[in-house]
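Input record, target 12 of the design panel.
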């Protein structure tokens, strides 16, 4: 991994990726009025077929060193990552704002999908494996996810950029 200090101009320190990742491993609430200032939203940017960006708020979790999300294969973001897996995901937490650029891959391994389902359920969204064992279902999801089943996607990071929002601050970009 290579780290580049984007805040040299202001004499701010290089941020530590291990500290960023440790924070991501803690719960990041996305329910209204449960985080600061009202919540922490994750945003997924994909590429439309005409090359324009598509950005949508999503439920996402940091699991085992990667971002995971779910959506219908028929949603715009599902169609976009099937055609072009390049994407970015961003989240703001108290300590920093973070953008990760990478590629999304649909995951269908039943054991992995079950692990992701359990993490989402433990975090408050009562999802479960569908009958195939390779996707998720639940009584509800975000309207933008489309109808079930919802496929599980893993984002493999290529680059991450963080802006520190608490002292001592900083801005760092990591290339993986």
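The sequence produced for target 12 reads:
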């Amino acid at each position: 991994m290579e780290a580049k200090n984007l805040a040299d101009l202001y004499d701010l320190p290089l941020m530590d990726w291990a500290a960023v990742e440790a924070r991501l491993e803690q719960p990041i609430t996305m329910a209204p009025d449960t985080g600061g200032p009202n919540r922490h939203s994750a945003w997924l940017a994909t590429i439309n077929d005409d090359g324009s960006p598509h950005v949508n708020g999503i439920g996402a979790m940091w699991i085992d060193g990667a971002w995971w999300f779910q959506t219908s294969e028929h949603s715009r973001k599902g169609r976009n990552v099937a055609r072009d897996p390049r994407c970015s995901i961003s989240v703001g937490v108290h300590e920093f704002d973070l953008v990760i650029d990478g590629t999304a891959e649909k995951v269908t391994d039943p054991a992995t999908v079950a692990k992701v389902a359990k993490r989402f359920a433990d975090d408050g969204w009562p999802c479960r494996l569908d009958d195939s064992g390779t996707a998720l279902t639940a009584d509800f999801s975000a309207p933008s996810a489309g109808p079930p089943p919802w496929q599980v996607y893993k984002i493999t990071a290529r680059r991450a950029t963080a802006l520190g929002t608490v002292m001592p601050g900083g801005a760092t970009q990591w290339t993986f």
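The chain has one domain: 2-175.
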